[in-house]
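#onboarding

Welcome to the new folks! Below is a worked example of what a typical request in this channel looks like: someone posts a single protein sequence, and someone else replies with the predicted structure as tokens. Don't worry about understanding the tokens yet, we'll cover that in week two.

Example request:
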Amino acid sequence: MSLLGGIVVAWPLTIRAQPSDQMRRIGVLQILADDDPEMVARHAAFEQALDTLGWSVGRNVRIDYRPAGGDANRVRKYAAELVALGPDVILTSGSLSVAPVLQVTRTIPIVFVQVTDPVGGGLVESLARPGGNATGFTNFEYSLSAKWLELLKEIAPNVTRVAVIRDPTRGPGIGQFAVIQSVGPSLGVELCPINALNRVEIESAIEAFARSSNGGLIVTSGGTGQNRDLIVPAAARHRLPAVYPFKYYVTDGGLISYGPNTIDLYRRAAAYIDRILKGEKPADMPVQAPTKYELIINLKTAKALGLTVPPPLLVRADAVIE
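Example response:
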């Protein structure tokens, strides 16, 4: 407020909401390795979105990245490290990384991406009003997992046995497998869970499963991304048609994926972080769902597997890799 010649003037609030040249700090706890192409693309999109909003790395914002590479011990270590740096906000990816940060701080704002069930996981009080110091973006509703099995039967109708790779210690792996299991009988499919606890277990389980005919593969979204360099080649080697949760599996040679655009989630996270840096509270910012799910098909992989992709499926695809 200012008094000019006896007239009270209220300056627009937007003036106080602009990014300043004061250096702010963002901590980023990531699950994938630093040199993973998907992680590089996420970082680029995130920083570009911040720049568009007025936050320029090196000028008025510093970003501290910590790559956990899917290791739970490193997640806990880096969660403590980032909190100790005293950032203005922390960005996390996946439920595996959010919970350890919340265990260390209940005051530093947290924005998460790619969390399947934040309410069930105790990360927020509700989607509409998170209530604590965390908010962000979900990636799947459990019910969507049935779509993976439907797509597998559509692209490979002879499949009667399906191995489902999941992490049995985490909510997403448990919930997604339960949904897939519930629709299996109606599609004439026998399901076999494969625990994604370590690389040796995954490889040996896929090899054992592939000894019988008419098999297919579904990879759930929880705790599998860091092992795609093992899973995708194994599916190809054993000639198993496979459905994946994200596009980057198909870019790496997987057959088909159905899931949210992971790069877009990082752009949207930048917008939430911008709002927090300007004074908003995570407690009042609703958790948001993906705006779109993408169907991606790799025709080269389909040809290698001897599959003909049905024309209706091709028409529905958001992207086709040839």
